[in-house]
Design goal:
The structure holds two protein chains of two kinds.
Chain A: H1 6-20, H2 37-46, H3 51-66, H4 105-113, H5 118-124, H6 133-148, E1 152-155, H7 156-162, H8 164-170, H9 181-189, E2 194-198, E3 208-209, H10 210-214, E4 224-229, E5 234-239, E6 251-252, E7 255-260, E8 265-272, E9 286-295, E10 300-307, E11 312-315, E12 318-321, E13 327-336, E14 341-350, E15 356-365, E16 370-379, E17 387-396, E18 402-411, E19 417-426, H11 429-437, H12 442-458, H13 463-476
Parallel strand pairs in A: 2-4, 3-5, 4-7, 5-8, 6-9, 7-9, 8-10, 9-11, 9-12, 10-13, 11-14, 12-14, 13-15, 14-16, 15-17, 16-18, 17-19
Antiparallel strand pairs in A: 1-2
Helix pairs in contact in A: 2-3, 3-9, 7-8, 11-12, 12-13
Chain B: E1 2-11, E2 14-24, E3 29-33, H1 40-48, E4 53-62, E5 65-66, H2 72-78, E6 80-83, E7 90-94, H3 95-109, H4 117-130, E8 141-142, H5 148-162, E9 166-170, H6 178-191, E10 197-201, E11 215-220, E12 223-228, H7 230-239, H8 242-249
Parallel strand pairs in B: 3-10, 3-11, 6-9, 9-10
Antiparallel strand pairs in B: 1-2, 1-4, 4-5, 7-8, 11-12
Helix pairs in contact in B: 3-5, 5-6
The chains are: A alpha/beta, B alpha/beta.
Bound molecules: adenosine-5'-diphosphate and magnesium ion.
Chain lengths: ~475, ~250
Amino acid sequence: MNKYTEDDLREELKTKEYEYGFYTDIKSDTFPIGLNEDIVKAISLKKEEPQWMTDWRLEAFKAWKEMTEPEWANVHYAKPDFQAISYYSAPNSKPKYNSLDEVDPELLATFAKLGISLDEQKKLSNVAMDVVVDSVSVATTFKKTLGEKGIIFMSISEAIKEHPELVKKYIGTVVPQKDNFYAALNSAVFSDGSFCYIPKGVHCPMELSTYFRINQAGTGQFERTLVIADEGSYVSYLEGCTAPSRDENQLHAAVVELIALDNAEIKYSTVQNWYPGNAEGKGGVYNFVTKRGLCETNAKISWTQVETGSAVTWKYPSCVLKGDNSVGEFYSIAVTNNYQQADTGTKMIHLGKNTKSTIISKGISAGKSQNSYRGLVKISPNADNARNFSQCDSLLMGNDCGAHTFPYIEAKNKSARIEHEATTSKIGEDQIFYCNQRGISTEKAIALIVNGFSKDVLNKLPMEFAVEAQKLLEISLEGSVG
Amino acid sequence: MLKIKNLHASVEDKSILKGINLEIKPGEVHAIMGPNGSGKSTLASVIAGKEDYEVTDGDIFFEGQDINELAAEERAHKGIFLSFQYPVEIPGVSVTNFMKTAINETRKAKGLEDMPAKDMLKLIREKAELLEIDRKFLSRSLNEGFSGGEKKRNEIFQMAMLEPKLAILDETDSGLDIDALRIVANGVNKLKSKDNAVLVITHYQRLLDYIVPDFVHVLYKGRIVKSGTKELAHELEEKGYDWIKEEVNA
Ligand SMILES: Nc1ncnc2c1ncn2[C@@H]1O[C@H](COP(=O)(O)OP(=O)(O)O)[C@@H](O)[C@H]1O
Ligand SMILES: [Mg+2]
């Protein structure tokens, strides 16, 4: 593998291109593996994008070529071979299965535990199904309500065509193409994602859930999300779902950009349950995500996340508190079990005066997993009276797992007030026996203790999501204490 | 109801219980007294099924069934309750939520549906009243930041909620002021019936003025060295444990 030179690569690409008739057959559903300028152009072409978008992608690609994969995170994995991936496959690819009988029973058992209906199970595991009247009508009502308020909620591909002025104005303003290795890669090749715009003064009347959108186009390997809350507006946005996502694509590199204009508020909640690999640590998704929000004056952005999946997670939802009096919040539960590795946290960048940030991170490690919190609180010279409160709690289950906390503080303004608290605890035999004595099994006792530990964050989730997230925590830790 | 025969138990290869014999019949109240470190809490934990303690010899029967192989939660489902000497904290889990889980898990083990929320609320209200527990208290995290007295009162509240057949109260009186002691004892007495039994573990005669025992046993160095009626408790109160120790060591 290390003998493999660029010449070899070029050679291989040529033959592949030939093999698949790449130049002539732009209609093919899946592109050949590998990444070069032509592939980037072809993705853009395939998606019928305007020239400015193509150029934007190419610019990103140019930057990416010069970058190297970061190695500072506390995770260890075999580096993906970026030339061994196909960067485009048609969103409407046909179902893989004809009936649920063909789907992995273990996956179905998990669906059942989560209380997911049969129809949904089919949808989630890619089984061919008839149109479910109910869900269609829900989606339609949903669209109608949003339309009346002038809210735009569609795939980013559609948005590039239908609202190019908005996309052009905001894309890459929070996460620039060159921001980091994975963001650059995403910018060059992003397949799809969501776009949302809330007009001035509008309070979005319902939780916007990607779930509705995903019915129209599958989740991509390189998703791009752009949410803009115009002045004085409010939106609560839900991403992901509790159902386990199995995906052939091992590498996922998404970018999420949030823009909260003056007096606007965005609440962004994520429940993420990518396949973490089996109990021996084989397989599993690598999840390298760049999420960042920009707050203008008096604006507020809250990130709430429950992470149970992925073999390797690298994720730091951040807030740039640009406007005076703006507020950033980060509430996170990260669970790792078996051989999972997670390096997550946040960055709070205080630029404006009287800006305020709160960080509550709950890490739960079981099995042989490693769970790291990495957080940066940065107070710039102009950010008078900035305040931050951080609390990072780790809960360990067993003796083979690890919890690590890396808080970084850069305060360049003397008036800053920064508080940091950290605790590490272990589920005690005594706690378990106490529960057992009250008739609660060990498994259930752990779920109870973990839910109690995570309560401050679970409480921040929208009600329905919180219930699902609780169940998810239980399932993720099943069998983790012997 | 409970029959313990020649029970030997050890922890970390250290022998602690050295041949306990005890029989408790329905409707009875037994008290176990004895100096610190004599094995009272160990006996309670062994009956409740704590795994750290190894039964090296002897048997424990509950309602005629040998329960030695049963897990702690299975014993709980059968109606064994232990009011802990040192109740543990479970942060973020409210008293109400904990009780709801305990009751529904026990019901599940018996093949019953979850208790309807309405019934649960009614039960909680009723039992909280019995033990003069404030409603606000029930939404606090279990035992977190509770005073010694609050912890003990909460244990008895849980007992009232679960209505066990055999309740073992391990030093429930310690940490209680006289008013709280009266409330707790009153709660226990209200729950007493001819079908259930109580095993009171205590240092002091004080609690036994309120919860009157039918039998009193003295545990010393892992053995029951003396049994008697409630008069024995008075005698111990007066003379201390030294005469017992002398008798045993003689
Ligand atoms: N988990 C344990 N590990 C080691 N020694 C123990 C443990 N539990 C109890 N012991 C010992 O067993 C003896 C009896 O303790 P305990 O049952 O708590 O007595 P009591 O409740 O009568 O005061 C003491 O010497 C105590 O140190
Ligand atoms: Mg004791």
